[in-house]
Amino acid sequence: MVQELLLHTALGGQYFTFGERQRYLKLAEHIAKLPTACGPALVAGLLPRRGPLSTPWRHAASHRIAYERACQQMRQEKQQQEQRPKEKELELINKNNRVEVYYDDARTHENRLGDLLSSHDFEVALIGKLRCGSPVAPRAHFLLTNNLYKDLSLTSHEKNEKSFEEPNARVLFARAMKGLEACGYLNAVARKRLREYGMKTTRYVCIARQPSFAPDPLTSHNNRGMQELLLSWSPPWCFHVRKLFLTGPDLFVAHLMLLAYEKGYELLQDGMYKQSEGIRELISLKSEEDIFATLQLPYVHPFHRYAYCRLHNLM
């Protein structure tokens, strides 16, 4: 916040008068002298806006910037405090009783998650190396979407970065995770915000008990290990494209993107587009196979994609 105010101070006269720059500098110095995190202290000082004219809070522009940044800081601190207990629980489970995820385990988790969420029009898909046939991985990664508000007639223009984190999507994703935690299938659900393909996305890290495939008198339900699951969200119109991107391998995806470009298409993480008379039209995809069909290519099963890359000297 201090650096931002100092930046406003350093801007040229065409943006701020000399007096305004002096007020920004004064407010920055005031914030820098606060002994602890400035969020609570700033909000407490900002709300009344009383005192002599020399008080920094009397000026609207500096007041607005400082207030917005203070509220943002307080929200971030609150979210971090809420996540710390669950992150500690995750670390404890990971150290004591965590086991790797085998391919059969991942498919079982995928089917059970799909069964639990299917009544609410959710769709679950396994992604990552396990979908490519890796026999074992440290964790299993799944992609969720909801087809209730699916609208494939939307074209081109409005599928930008904001579409991935629209409020309705966040609410649906959060409700799904709370439901899975409430029914006891998932434990220690922790939310993380990260950048993925140039945009901010939400990912849930959680723990689930390892599935059992056959009754074993030497193995009880209580001593099976805990496995780490990652769950990401995708809007319905780009679910199959994102499934392709997040399954990989990256060289295979880059190869498809180049082939799509040569044929007049645009294959991006938020959908597949066709340029037509200067208008970017979103192509309706009902499955991952439709991507290959649109490009007039034979479908390559995830099990064979690494071999495809080696065969075409992509690796």
TrEMBL record:
Organism: Trypanosoma theileri
Keywords from the named record: Nucleotidyltransferase, Transferase
Record-given protein name: DNA polymerase beta thumb domain-containing protein
Residue ranges annotated for the DNA polymerase beta thumb domain, each copy included: 245-305
Pfam family, one: DNA_pol_B_thumb
Domain of life: Eukaryota
MF terms (GO), sorted A to Z: nucleotidyltransferase activity
Lineage of source species: Eukaryota, Discoba, Euglenozoa, Kinetoplastea, Metakinetoplastina
InterPro entries in alphabetical order: DNA_Pol_thumb_sf, NT_sf, PolB_thumb
